[in-house]
Every structure is written in structure tokens, then in C-alpha cells.
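#dry-run=false #mode=assembly
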Amino acid sequence: MGAGCSGAWVCRVIDVIVVGSGAAGTWAAWQASQEGLSVLVLDVGLRPPAVPPLRGHLLDLRRSDPRQAEYLIGSGFESLHNVAGAYQSPKLNSPRFRFVTERAAVFGALRGEGFSAVQSFARGGLAEAWGAGAYRFTGDDLRRFPLPAGCLEPFYDELTRRIGIAGSEDDLVGHFGSARDLQPPLSLDRLASRLLASYERRRDRFRAEGFTIGRPRLAVLSRPLGERPACPYDNLTFWQPQLGYLYVPSLTLDALVAERRIEYRERKLVLRFREGEGHVEVLARDTAGGADETYRARRLVLAAGALNSARLVLRSHDDFETTLPLLDNQPSMVPFLHAGSVGESPDSSSHGLGQLNIVHQPPEGLDYVQGTYYTYNGLLASEVIIDFPLPARSAVAACRYLLPAFSVVTFFYPDEPRAGNFVRLCPDGSLLASYRQPVKTGGVERRFIRLMAGSGFLSHPTVVKVPAPGSGIHYAGTLPMQGERSLKHCTDPSGRLHGSRAVYVADASVFPTLPAKNHALTLMANAMRVARAVAASIRGAA
Amino acid sequence: MTEDGADALSREAVYLGRQVFGVELPSSLVEAYVRANRQLLAGDSTRDAVLESALARAVREQRDVEAVELVLRLARRDNLITRKVHVLSYLIETQPSFLPLYLNERRAPVRAWAALATHGLRAIWKRVRGRRVLRRLGLPRD
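#status=ok
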């Protein structure tokens, strides 16, 4: 046993320690084990509540289940803590999904200045509650990444086969890229079908304004894959974690552990690392007993998320001075009412996820804005009841008739490093996340509202909501990969931390810029690429 | 919370259910409202205390709380009375027997537009009435 070390793992030096089990950590571990390396994943690993899973269609449960308040608002009213407050992701607020963000302030103290941060210490990370958007970054998206063209493609292909991605190659194929092995797209619900039909009739008008509409790429099965079932359109995606048909990282993690391809240790909060001669020591705290433990490996892969990987690097260097860039996709939400659908009966054919994607690309420049079209049939009416300028009983009646006609487009904006947006470690150990230079929204929304009116979907710029920066929950860029180093803490194109021989970063921290599309699939693919580089470096050293 | 406090909240729940939502709450919902208030709505600001006391008086005097809530919400949506009404809405909506209030089971576009027009007019009337009740309760609009 090495000096200052404890625990069984220091008895044999393992190849790789992966910190975190989110989308990046899981796929870094998967690839590392595929390369024949011994892998230890250290993770706090909070799990969903041990309750019987929901069965049946949401509408049927709501019509008949007398105990529905338990999973719709929580037996301790967990989802009502923010009534009438600022916007929160409805999924993260849902009682059975609360484990995803539970105790985040305890494990990762964070102070936001103009930034509303969401962190996860769950098994599987934030992607346990993701919207399943699985998009490839195209050459244009990656133009400021110091990576050779096409280097992510084999990993995208592998992921598409393994996790199952439904989608099609329609008008958006130029933005999403061609993909082999896509499953057929999910069926559209009633309102989305009406929008798509109208878009197809008025395509030239939409395209002339820079808007393109098509099917989303979703990590949801439209056909069975292995033991996983196809989506039954039960509309439970807001209320029940780990549905099987919707991919989450814990599915892969469970398989890796069951096949003994990795060692997974939960209740371990990694605090810092230290490099030695040919190895790295990792200090972790047992979150149950409070004891500190040291682990040793040839290589360390940080995949704790953009905020916590940055915290680990700064803390390990006792660096309270350096500011690191912070990126996020700023969202804006545009509600629409389809006049022709007012007074319809509930639509039982939905899945609660994004129905369509909208991309706005201006004629000048390559940066685009990407939106997702959601219909409002998986959530409670009470979520929006106080948004109507009506007395409560009238608002209930309005919801009854208007919600079948109600939909929301959430636009996401691209991001790049700006001086006012950064993270810094404070002497008390908390992370300061400052976001003083948000992107400007409004123009795209106004143009889209005008365009949609011609299709019978009505809205007004005054009802557009722009949640606080940080609400996009697509954090990135804190340890960007750079071809030529210009920051104190950054990574090289292989993901290796500059100035280090054995520490790699595999999550979205390494993205130098952030396109408008969901980055989850790319961070998984990049984590696999980094893990392959780690394997090569170990083989090279040997 | 004292027994008296729980009794007052129970009376408040019954009154809000009847006057604001037009329903008779079962005892299980009244109990849930009392528990939710204890856990979520224990107001500690001066403003909350003023509104708590005004609400108690409005319940005692059988005033139009729905109208008061609308006027307060249009000025500032995070006020205590709106939060109480909002919580009660969640509790009511998650009872299968009250679901028809929130869910239109059969296609009815004509009835829908007629209802929306009626409720639009009702909103105007309630705003006028709400301002009057607020004055009687001695509360400012914001």
C-alpha cells in the first residue's frame, strides 16, 4: 500500500479512473474497457426512488389512479416548492426525477452570478432526465474544434447502433448529418402533424425566412433493440425515470457492471487529484461515512460535467485566481395556440418529447439557432394556470379547452467564450459561475411568430419567455481543447490536460464553442475518442 | 402550528375550494392543503403576514378571494395568496374525480369558444370587483 493511501484499489494500480457516470463518464468507461483497460468509476451515484414503476398510459392513470399525487406532485409536495417562482425544468421538478439534482448544493457548492446552475450527482448524471435529443455535430459545428475532419464519425456510428436513435433524413439532414442505422422516426401527435403538413405546403415561405422544419433525432426506440422495448406512446417521460425505450446512461452502466467490465464505486465524491511518477492519486470522500480514501491509477479521466471537472482541476492546483470560460445554450420559449384545435379532446398519441425541430440559419454566417417543438399534453394544467390573466376558475376552464391546442417551441442559441462568462474557485471551496454577457434573443422569435401565424399557430412577442442564463443545462467550455495553448488550464486535442501527463478530460468541458444543438451525443462520442487516446498513451508508455 | 392554526387552514381550504374553484373538497384534500401550507407556505416576510391576515379576514367575511387573487397576481405573481391558490390547484387536479375540470374529454370547439368568451368577460368583472374588495380589506394592489 502506497504512502498516504488507503483502500483496496491502491494494492494494484489500475489503468483508468473515471470520475462521474454521466453520458461522458459512462461512454469513456465503455470505450476504455473495450480497449482492454481496467476501469474504476468513482461516483456519488444517487439513485431514483425504489418505488414500483408506473404502468399504463398517463391519461388512464390520471383518470383512475387515486394515488397519482405521489408521482405527479410528490407525497411531500416535492414538486411544489417553486410554485409561482422562476422557470424550472418540469422534468427535473418531477418527484421521481428529483434524485437527478438532489443534494447538488451539498456535494458541489456553487454561487451563480446571473447564472442559474443545475448540477447532478446522480448515477447516470443529468442525462437521466434529458430530452433525448441526439445530434451529430457537422463539420461546420466543429469548425473551431482542433480536431481532424470526421474523427468523431466512427463513434457516432457506434453510438447510433448501441443506444438506438430514431429520426429521418428530411429537410434537416444538412444540419443533422447523414447517419446509418437510424431507427424510423417516432410518430407525430395531432398538433405536430398539423404543423408539419402546413410547413410542407408553405416550405418555400419558411425557407425564404431562413427556417427549416423536420423530425428530431431522439435516443428513443421506435423498434425494439435487444431487450429494450419500443416506445409505447404512454406519455410517461416526464414522470417515470428509466423507461427502457428512452436511452439513459445508467442502462449502459448497468450492463458494464453486470458484465464485470468495469468496477463501479458509488458514494464517492472525488475532491482532488495529484500526479505522481507514472500514476495519478485521487482523493475521494465517502459520502455515507465521511472518510477520505485515496485511489491510484495510470490515467485519470475527468467526466464530472463542465462545472465539476473545472472545480476539480482548480482545486487540485489550489488555484483561486484563474477564471475559466463558461458556455451554455441560452433558451427562449415561445408558446403557440393553434386556433383550429381549441376544444379538441386529449391526444393520447404523444410521447412527451420533442416532436419536431426548427432550425433558423441566417443567410450570412454559419451560426444557427435550433428549436424544438413540444405539444402540451404530458404535464399538469396547473403548471401554466397562473400564466393566464384570468381568475383561477376561469383559468382552469381555459386550460381545459386551450391546452389541446397549446404548444411551445424552445429555441437554443449557440455560445462562444466571452469575458463576462466564467467560473472561478472561491477560497471556501465553492465555485463561482458568472454569466454577465448573455446572448441577445428576440429577433428569431419575432420572425418565427409571424411565419407561424400563416399556419394558424398564434403567438405574440410579449408572451415569449427567456429563462435565466444557465437554464439551458448544456454547460461546456471550461477546459477547452486548444491546438495552441492560450489558457492556463485547457486540454490538448486528445483531451489531455495541458501540463499533465496522465489527466484527461472527457466531458463537455473540452468544447471550445457550443453550437445550438444538444451536445449530449457529441460529448459521448468525444468521450469515447478520449478514452481511445488514453489507451494509446498507456500502450505507448508500456 | 397550533391546533387553531390547523383549524383556520382547514376552513381556508374549504372556502377556497368552494369560492375559487367551485368544488367541495374531500377531507383528504383539506388535510393535504394543511400539510402543504405547513411545508411550503410558512410565510416569514412582513408582506406574507399582511396577506395571511387579509386572507383570514376575507374567509371570515366570505369575500371574493378569487377576485382578490387575480388583482394581486396581475401585479406580482409570487404573492402568498396566489401561491396558496396555485398549490390548491395542483391538489385538486391530481384527484381523479376533479380531472374533468381540467381535461376536455370530448371534442367541443363551439362550446370551447363560447366558454372562453364568457370567461374573458368574467375576468374583466373580477378585476373590477377584486380592486373593490382589496380596498375594503385595506390592501394595496401590489
